[in-house]
Specification:
Blueprint: H1 12-33, H2 37-58, H3 65-82, H4 87-97, H5 119-142, E1 150-155, H6 161-171, E2 173-177, E3 186-187, E4 192-194, H7 200-221, E5 230-234, H8 236-248, H9 251-254, E6 258-262, E7 271-274, E8 277-285
Parallel strand pairs: 1-2, 5-6
Antiparallel strand pairs: 1-4, 3-4, 5-8, 7-8
Helix pairs in contact: 1-2, 1-3, 1-5, 2-3, 3-4, 5-6, 7-8
């Protein structure tokens, strides 16, 4: 587990959220000094949304010190930002999150000091997020869901490694290509193109991701904790389908912490859809 005070080496994503916090802090401080509480709260709301749907979502598999240290400081800052508007909620969160050397009350803490944001990091991440948005719009136009992997995406200019990795994962493609536009790709706005051909192997990977999402939903409904191993009982046809998909996409079982158990005559009210077929399942905690 993370020990408070351990920092590690920040990633580009960590540097981005720090820069974004500084940008928001400067803007919110300016709003409050000019008695514009409405704009201030909207800025805070947008920042919390980005913290959740971009930074946390992108970091959900991380266990390094830099992530926990970065997130902890950002959460403390958010608590201070909301304190003028939600004093009781902020006070509760402060007591949960604060370090031992910090004031006992958020209302006794000093307002965060505004620092200069790293504009280069903000600009580069904004570029990537624009490409992601354009890529998702292009997928929608092609009728290809985001969960369906594709072989490649084309971008007009090459990106630094960390940004390229983010774009590959967000677009759910195997690789990025640059240079001359491949004739077989479909192109959208913001200089983005996609190879829209879904091969049988890519289709199987997409089916595996659909199955994984459904198994994870069942885990949540069953009250199982992340990381707890489970036995997924399935009938013969479903067992064969899921075994074949797991051979193409091993994450189907590893990410769901699941072991398939063949039960030939299984009857269950709980079902998942695998390759268009309903498959009865029973999910139980492993012994």
């Amino acid at each position: 587990g993370w020990e408070m005070g351990a920092e590690g080496t920040p990633t580009l994503l960590d540097r981005w959220v720090v820069a974004r916090e500084r940008e928001v802090l400067t803007a919110v401080t300016d709003c409050l000094e000019n008695a514009d509480a409405t704009k201030a709260t909207r800025l805070i709301e947008d920042y919390i949304d980005e913290l959740s749907t971009w930074y946390l979502r992108r970091s959900r598999k991380r266990t390094d010190d830099a992530f926990f240290a970065t997130l902890h400081v950002r959460l403390l800052s958010v608590v201070q930002l909301i304190a003028p508007f939600m004093p009781f909620t902020a006070e509760y969160l402060w007591k949960v999150l604060k370090r031992a050397d910090q004031p006992i009350s958020v209302h006794l803490s000093s307002w965060p000091h505004a620092q200069v944001a790293d504009e280069a990091v903000l600009t580069s991440m904004k570029q990537v997020r624009s490409l992601v948005e354009a890529g998702h719009a292009l997928r929608s136009k092609l009728g290809i869901r985001v969960r369906q992997p594709l072989a490649a995406a084309w971008v007009a200019e090459s990106l630094p490694e960390e940004l390229a990795e983010i774009l590959v994962e967000e677009l759910n493609v195997g690789t990025l290509v640059t240079g001359e536009r491949p004739a077989s790709f479909t192109y959208g706005e913001q200089g983005i193109g996609l190879d829209g051909m879904v091969t049988p192997e890519l289709q199987a990977q997409g089916d595996a991701r659909d199955a994984l999402r459904q198994i994870q939903d069942i885990r949540k409904r069953s009250g199982l904790q992340p990381g707890e191993m489970v036995d997924l009982q399935v009938a013969e046809d479903g067992h064969a389908r899921l075994t074949a998909l797991a051979a193409v996409q091993p994450a189907l079982l590893t990410d769901s912490f699941c072991t398939l158990v063949l039960v030939p005559d299984l009857v269950s009210d709980t079902e998942i859809t695998v390759q268009g077929e309903s498959v009865p399942v029973i999910c139980t905690k492993s012994a």
